[in-house]
Specification:
239 residues; alpha/beta; 33% helix
Length: 239
Amino acid sequence: MELVETGIIGLDRILGGGFPKGRTILVSGPAGAGKSTFGVQFLYHGIVSGGESGIFVSFDEHPAHVREECLNLGWNLNDLEKDNLLVLIDGFSPRAGVSSEEKYQTPVDVDELITQLVEIIDKTSAERVVIDSITALALSMETEQQIRKQILKLSAVMSSLECTTILTSEMRGGVVSRFGVEEFMSQGVIVLNYEYQNSLAIRSLNIRKMRGLKHEMVERPFAITPNGIEVYATEQFYF
């Protein structure tokens, strides 16, 4: 099985090399856990180190804010966009019902998103896609059956295009799947979390599922450093 490096410091060691190429990975966690940072770091590494162009679909935050926040980590997304190595799709403004000057925009609709992704992938040969978040897409659907069908369709299309795709999802009350189906529709599941110890928030990560790979099931601490997310692969997290 071909693997692609995640670019998340320490994570590839735990995974045994990286994510299975062309698979869909769910990254779940509560607000503030680092899901968006995880996604952008995955794309940024693919571009600068692996020569793999990428697409970031932002439903939860305006792309302008994503660019500003990434500069704090030394990631200049503007330059990558100018070189046609990265495409940011604004799903936030249509969702919020406000105007946007972004070149790429998408409504909260899976079929229209898929059509747009296919067109952009055809133009840019993108191999990595991040959708932040699948929760926003699922909220526009009425039934569990519809959510399951649409997430499966999205995963299948990305796989057929040989894109390694990350779907971020909001986690509440320790439940990985907000709608009860996301983790079953993905080939891999990574959970980001944090617990307060002596008034200090300690972040942790665990690999819940990764089909086709032997991986550890240990909770590992991680931090968001000036260089991005760093997983402490030799340390265990104790609640």
